[in-house]
Amino acid sequence: MFTRHVSRQLAAYIDGALSPQEAARVERHTARCAECRAEREQVKFGMEALDCLAVVEPPDAVWTSIERGAYAPAKRVHTSVNAARMSACATAAILALIGVAYWTIAHRAPAGEWIETDSKSSTIILVGQIGSVEIEPNTRLRVVTDRPDEHRLALARGEIRARISAPPKLFFVDTASGTAVDLGCEYTLKTDEDGAGLLRVTKGWVSFQWKGLESLVPAGASCRTRPQVGPGIPYFDDAPERLQQALESGALDTILAEARVRDTLTLWHLLSRVEIADRARVYDRIASLTPVPAGVSREQALKLDPETLGRWKEELAWTW
Amino acid sequence: MLRIGTAACILATIGLAQDFKFTIGNAVASQDFQMKTATFVFRTEGCAEPSKSRIGATAEGMVKGERRSVDLKVMTSASKPGVYAVYQMWPSEGDWVVSLKGTCAGVNAGAIVPIGPNGFVRESTKYFARAATGAEIDASLKALAKGAKK
Questions:
Q1: Are A191 and A157 a contacting pair, CB within 8 Å?
Q2: CATH code for A110-319?
Q3: If I label A186, which of A206, B31, B94, B130 is the partner at 20 to 30 A Cα–Cα?
């Protein structure tokens, strides 16, 4: 019995782009065809992996091959095999052109170069092989280092959106009042020339540091930074408004009263930033929201023992 | 004597996995940067040997009135034993929940994790001391459709 394989529909099927009838046909077929099932798994993983890929620069050979293709003498084709080849070549050329168009926009900037956008322009720069940075209008930044072991930008003013796919601590952005250290993430960072700014993380973690002060900001959370003060206390974007306002005014009673389990992110950071007299109140509030894990003692936590706080943070992160 | 020994072994085995259960969290909870794009991560608790546990997941959905089910591959953390990641391998349209099931030393655990427009819905996640039943999954899908989304 002959069977129509469904290889060509697999990507659309995984994307949910098929009609219910087509999707049902793919499901029926893959249920009895081991070959297509295996291919479906490969396509799934491929699509998933795409999400993690960094943008890379095209090799010079891309230009050469396009130019060669554009000026090559046309050949007559007669057979269906040749037609298929031509079709494949055309597709490849179109893809290459799209790639080049993208890479023309997303370029590499050498260390030391200043990049400035006006109110109507924006651009994208590549961060080695590990990601890209979109530079919004009215932004001024400098590429400080561009080495495999350290990619560092200095954001003088404006807004950037970073997408990094790499092990932690390879990508840094300096501002006047803090350095954003990538821990595997996507985020936006905006600042004015004095250093008043906002970090908002959409994936992964960012460590926001300044003169020994560190704020850990996970996906879904934000952190303000102020001139001469550095990174503030991070908070989830869906935190109660009263809590967010209280963070601005420093109203500890309100912060403690409004905090939800998830806001232990905020409380954990507060623990080491409030006056000693208030530290126990913060500890007790966290303990009332979620059980204190084994290995975390009140005494050590109030002493701000780094190991204890680290262990507690790892456990609290399951509620963030 | 042999019976007592066997019974003691069985009890000890059950004891090791007495409170076997799942905990769900954001991708960052894994502390594993390779999992940062996961829809959510989860860990097993009460399982002395996570490497010997059996973990599975399916996405269960309702798309345009049609019930759909997608087998999911669960990624295991290389650095944190007992920590796993679930990635979106189901269509973006429709209502979906992820059904987790696991077995450790003969003890079962399950969970139904609703997926909302902003990711998984922690507040509506249901935990079981067994795999969730089809009826429980259907009920969660109905609740999701009624607006239990984040």
A1: yes
A2: 2.60.120.1440
A3: B94
